[in-house]
Design a protein that fits this description.
The protein is mostly helical. Among the domains are: about 1-175, no CATH class; about 320-350 and about 440-450, no CATH class; about 350-435, no CATH class. Helices cover about 40% and strands about 10% of the residues. The chain is built from 19 helices and 13 strands. It has helices at about 5-15, 45-65, 85, 100-125, 130-155, 180-195, 210-230, 275-290, 300-305, 330-335, 355-360, 365-370, 395-400, 460-470, 475-490, 505-520, 525-530, 535-540, 565-570, and strands spanning about 80, 235-240, 245, 250, 255-260, 315-320, 340, 345, 350-355, 375, 385-390, 420-425, 455. The strands form six sheets. It has a three-stranded mixed beta sheet. It has a two-stranded antiparallel ribbon with strand order 1-9. It has a two-stranded antiparallel sheet with strand order 2-5. The longest helix is centred in the N-terminal third of the chain and has 26 residues, at about 100-125.
């Protein structure tokens, strides 16, 4: 859902204190002014206020101070950045980064609490349009299901809340088994898909989640269950040591293909792999066939344009207003940076992908040709007229400097590197594969940028369908779906015959897995794909220690789950211990 559309209503909620959260108890809702929940009204307009109050939690409880959604992204094999930003969560010190891990737990449960309260009041209404009420309830069920999905992936066994604390629910809730949690997620999403408007319905409001959002998330949920339960399968990943040393000379390495036997994810043992993938394929295909409204892959040139952020690829995303300190996200700051009037970066621009990720692509692929920043200038470089280029390979070194791979000057820099700036490469966190996904914003001179965060895209659903069909033995269907995503990005198409053919289920599985790393980079998916496929430890430890930015990547079994916040463990009498390995 786009927060922008409902911004004025959300401001009313904040100003009135209608559903403000106590600092001492993040779950307890207490009105702080003369307007209370019982005074909101009984109408379609009142429904809008409740819905906005729930969606406001994404910004007010999680995105506002930049810990979220970065907590989804930092711990994986390909993401890197400066030590001060990555050395806690990004280096495996999850409990030392409590402000990041805790904000997800507390923020999502705050959202669930508010959703439960909204459900109660909307169900009690009698003067509203019935299908409008049902659609609103579907949106709230979706939000609860999505929150539970994020929580159980991160923390394993979690708490389930059917009613609000404000209605007397016991705060000392026990953790529920993973099968129980997924059963609740599936129930909520199926109900949501059946009662929400489709995107093609004339009553659908642009920017809201739709029936297809629920169907698409169902496909992803089932694929998560299916991959987690799969036993004995192999996965090939391109990885290895980040650098090599020859005397004083340290250089980047090319990744090598390593095949790992996956682990069954703890708690997923009882899920039927085939039935889960059958359901994943069914729900994904329903979305692709338009059964829940029209969604499509946008042309790459339009995909990340701010003018197209309501178009039919973004099935659930959070976006805010430029230059607003209350409703902003840190996505633009961390990935894109803040620029001055001269086009130099003054702060931010901290998170990017490693060289091994960049090497996954053909050079003609739009996702690196256009989707990666190949030159930038920091404010501190202006004194010596310097700037960075990326990557340090033969193609871009020649373009940016005129030097060949042997260090010989053979030409002059070419456009756009012929602007008089002396471009160079620095083997550190300053030179990573920085994405352009979040760069088209209204004003990049402010930290309060309006880049959207895509929680679910149609491309993700298409790749889930490809994955499911491959695991079900339908290779051609898998290849056809994979190529839908590849052709959009001008990538080499996959084939079952001829040069470069994918000749086995392992080949196709690994290729789709790699495609997800390419397509969904910097969207908070990579860690969770590694986890659900049971290759997280293998992939992280294959790096052999530190990446090119000096970030420690070695992991042990305790890193498979985030620690539950210590406040929850210490105060909830139904929880007797934290996740394994955490205090």
């Amino acid at each position: 859902m786009k927060i922008r559309k409902l911004y004025i209503t959300a401001l009313f909620l904040l100003a009135s204190g209608l559903l403000s959260t106590s600092c001492n108890d993040y779950l307890k809702e207490e009105p702080e002014s003369f307007i209370g929940p019982d005074q909101v009204g009984d109408s379609d307009a009142a429904i809008d206020i409740w819905i906005t109050g729930v969606y406001n939690r994404w910004i007010n409880s999680m995105f506002l101070y930049n810990q979220f959604p970065l907590v989804l992204e930092k711990d994986c094999d390909y993401t890197s950045g400066p030590d001060w930003s990555m050395s806690y969560l990004g280096a495996g010190n999850f409990q030392d980064s409590s402000s990041e891990c805790d904000v997800m737990w507390e923020g999502l449960y705050s959202l669930i609490e508010r959703a439960n309260l909204a459900i109660k009041y909307i169900k009690a209404m009698s003067n509203c349009t019935e299908d409008y009420r049902q659609n609103a309830l579907g949106e709230l069920y979706f939000q609860k299901a999505f929150a539970y999905f994020l929580l159980t992936r991160a923390y394993g066994e979690i708490l389930l809340w059917d009613t609000s604390i404000s209605d007397g629910a016991d705060q000392n809730q026990p953790r529920q088994s993973i099968p129980t949690v997924y059963s609740e997620i599936i129930k909520l999403l199926k109900e949501s898909a059946s009662i929400m408007y489709s995107r093609d319905n004339s009553k659908y409001s642009t920017g809201h989640v739709s029936a297809a959002s629920a169907a698409g998330l169902l496909a992803k949920v089932y694929a998560t269950m299916g991959s987690g339960s799969l036993s004995g399968a192999e996965m090939t990943i391109r990885t290895g040591a980040a650098t090599s040393t020859n005397g004083d000379d340290i250089t980047l390495t090319l990744p090598v293909s390593k095949t790992f036997t996956k682990d069954v994810v703890a708690g997923y043992e009882t899920f039927g792999t085939d039935s889960c993938y059958e359901n994943a394929a069914k729900w994904a295909k329903a979305v692709m066939d338009g059964d829940y409204g029209t969604y499509e892959l946008l042309p790459y040139s339009e995909l990340w344009s701010k003018d197209h952020n309501n178009d039919p690829e973004f099935m659930f995303s959070v976006q805010t207003i430029s230059n607003n300190s209350d409703y902003h996200v840190g996505v633009g700051l961390y990935y894109n940076g803040v620029y001055n009037a001269s086009g130099r970066i003054t702060t931010g621009h901290w998170l990017g992908n490693r060289y091994h990720w960049y090497c996954l692509f053909d050079s003609k692929d739009y996702r690196v040709a256009d989707g990666v920043q190949h030159r930038w200038v920091n404010e501190g470089q202006q004194d010596y007229n310097g700037g960075f280029y990326y990557p340090k390979n033969a193609e871009y070194t020649l373009k940016a400097t005129g030097y060949d791979s042997n260090g010989n000057k053979v030409a002059e820099p070419v456009s756009p590197y012929d602007d008089g700036i002396n471009y160079y490469y620095n083997l550190s966190y300053e030179c990573l594969a920085f994405t352009t996904k979040y760069s088209d914003v209204t004003d990049n001179t402010t930290q309060d940028q309006d880049a959207q965060w895509p929680f679910l895209r149609y491309a993700d659903v298409v790749l889930i369908y490809a994955e499911a069909e491959n695991e079900l033995g339908n290779a051609q269907l898998a290849i056809d779906a994979l190529n839908l995503v590849r052709s959009r990005s001008n990538a080499t198409l996959a084939t079952l015959t001829g040069d470069g053919a994918l000749t086995s289920q392992l080949d196709i599985r690994s290729t789709i897995f790699e495609e997800r790393a390419k397509e969904l980079a910097c969207e908070g998916d990579r860690r969770w794909d590694l986890i659900r496929w049971g290759v997280y430890l293998q992939a992280m430890n294959a790096i052999g220690g530190y990446d090119e930015s000096g970030i420690y990547k070695i992991r042990s079994s305790k890193h498979l789950l985030y620690p539950i916040p210590s406040d929850e463990v210490n105060t909830n009498t139904a929880i007797t211990s934290n996740n394994p390995g955490w205090n």
